């Protein structure tokens, strides 16, 4: 376990030295602030547009914003933060191939599962910390501006999007084991996600696929209940574990 800890620390220092840690902090704080900010600005924007729309024969009704408006914005924006995060870490393993550092480390007796484990730990920790920061900033501003309970099941909804991010991390790690370039990893991950998304159009299985977690926004208005997401949460966890197990199995046999 000493080697795993040492390699994980090395990965953390690499993230700090390359400026990725600071970028992640700025990214998630920005998205956290943007959610209530957009909600707060919505009435002003609608009022600004009302006169020009009136000339076209359209009338804009009074817009009421509350914490629900902000949390809906959170659900719309967090996928963008997720995409940037995955782009940032898409080369976490392929960069090792390009530099040839894995050959040296393996020659010194470092177990392959520790390399993959350290990469997974770093991505999981930074996703957890960044997502938690974004969620906390949005929560704090919502309480400051509105302090209401207009949004239901906020924690469950947030948990669903968080789990979706973890599943995508395992998908990135799996494709990183198969391909040697960051571009190929991203392309394969996109294809994998697209396949799951398209399968979601099949009524019989859509509620069991990770893409169904995007529907968690319905929890905020009580249009759905937490129990509705138990099947997809369980299957997403199972798929994530399978991805990691498959990645490890392939990585152990891979020629580096």
Structure notes:
The protein is an all-alpha fold. It has one domain (2-56, 64-253). 73% of the residues lie in helices and 0% in strands. The chain contains nine helices and no strands. Helix 3 (67-89) packs parallel to helix 7 (154-178), helix 7 (154-178) packs across helix 8 and helix 7 (154-178) packs parallel to helix 9 (230-253). It is globular and about 70 Å long. The model has no long low-confidence stretch (mean pLDDT 86).
With helices defined by DSSP (H or I, 4 residues minimum), what is the helix count?
A: 9
What is the molecular shape?
A: globular
β-strand number: 0
Instruction: Write down the overall mean pLDDT.
Output: 86
Strand fraction = under 5%
Q: Which helices and strands occur, and which strands form pairs?
A:
Elements: H1 2-17, H2 20-54, H3 67-89, H4 94-99, H5 101-107, H6 112-145, H7 154-178, H8 182-199, H9 230-253
Short description:
With 256 residues, the chain is mainly α. The chain has nine helices and no strands.
């Amino acid at each position: 376990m000493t080697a795993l800890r040492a390699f994980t620390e090395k990965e953390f220092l690499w993230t700090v030295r390359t400026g990725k840690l600071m970028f992640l902090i700025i990214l998630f704080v920005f998205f956290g602030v943007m959610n209530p900010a957009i909600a707060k600005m919505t009435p002003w924007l609608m009022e600004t547009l009302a006169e020009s729309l009136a000339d076209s024969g359209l009338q804009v009704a009074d817009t009421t914003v509350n914490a629900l408006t902000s949390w809906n914005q959170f659900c719309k924006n967090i996928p963008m933060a997720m995409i940037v995060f995955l782009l940032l870490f898409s080369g976490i393993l392929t960069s090792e191939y390009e530099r040839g550092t894995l050959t040296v480390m393996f020659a010194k007796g470092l177990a392959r599962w520790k390399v993959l484990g350290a990469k997974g730990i770093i991505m999981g920790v930074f996703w957890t910390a960044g997502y938690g920061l974004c969620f906390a900033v949005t929560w704090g501003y919502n309480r400051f501006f509105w302090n209401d309970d207009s949004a239901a099941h906020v924690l469950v909804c947030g948990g669903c999007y968080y789990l979706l991010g973890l599943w995508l991390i395992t998908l990135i790690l799996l494709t990183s084991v198969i391909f040697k370039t960051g571009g190929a990893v991203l392309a394969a991950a996109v294809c994998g996600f697209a396949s799951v998304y398209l399968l979601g159009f099949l009524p019989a299985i859509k509620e069991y696929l990770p893409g169904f977690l995007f529907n968690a926004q319905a929890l905020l208005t009580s249009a759905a209940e937490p129990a509705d997401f138990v099947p997809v949460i369980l299957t997403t966890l199972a798929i994530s574990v399978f991805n990691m197990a498959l990645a490890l199995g392939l990585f152990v046999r891979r020629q580096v």
